[in-house]
Amino acid sequence: MPRPLQRVTSRSQSDSSSKSDVLRPTIRRDPSAVLLGLVIAVLLAWRFTTGKIAADKITSRRDELFYWLTIVVSNTLGTALGDFTADATGLNLGFEKGALLFAGLIAVVAMLHWLKWLPQAVLFWAAYILTRPLGATLGDVLTKSHGQGGFEFGRITATLVITAAMVALIVVSPKLSRPATVEA
């Protein structure tokens, strides 16, 4: 990824938490519904303006603008969903159940992808949005204190645990996608 795009992506991810935190007291309720409406509005505007929503084929400045606007709003939505799900002011599921909920929703999106029941662009953005609260709730499970429902690993240990899990998945995933060989 080119360096300017890395900075924008990194910045939008770190800023989304603060945007979500600012929106909650401003609108005096959980901002998830408002942010979901914004994501849908941006995607509809993208579709009606360019004739397509193709995050994998950004070919014009207009597509790039819509892409980054969707990234910023969807990162903020993902953060708000994670907070709403785990916090006592929302669904109060806690970190572990929140992580399980988002992992389950990503599994549903994956199933819909394989069944081809919905447009791939919709499924891409659904999965993109859901990875944010999944990562946040899993991170909270690893780093929060026992009293808050976490494992209290600390950031470095949590980072090492997540890195080990990612490496294991990367190593295992090509083996899962290889076709079975039949011996004569």
Structural description of this entry:
- The chain is globular, with a radius of gyration of 18 Å.
- α4 (94-115) packs antiparallel against α5.
- The chain is built from six helices and no strands.
- It has helices spanning 3-27, 32-50, 61-86, 94-115, 120-143, 155-177.
- The mean pLDDT is 84.
- It has one domain (3-134).
- The termini are far apart.
- With 184 residues, the protein is mainly alpha-helical.
Order of helices and strands: HHHHHH
Given the C-alpha coordinates, what overall shape results? Answer: globular
- End-to-end Cα distance, whole Å, is 46 Å
Number of distinct helices = 6
- Rg, alpha carbons: 18 Å
The helix fraction, in percent, is over 70%
Q: Using DSSP, what is the number of strands?
A: 0
Domain module tally? 1
Instruction: Look at the structure and give the mean pLDDT.
Output: 84
Broad structural category: mainly alpha
- Which consecutive residue ranges, at least 5 long each, have pLDDT under 50? none
Beta-strand percent range? under 5%
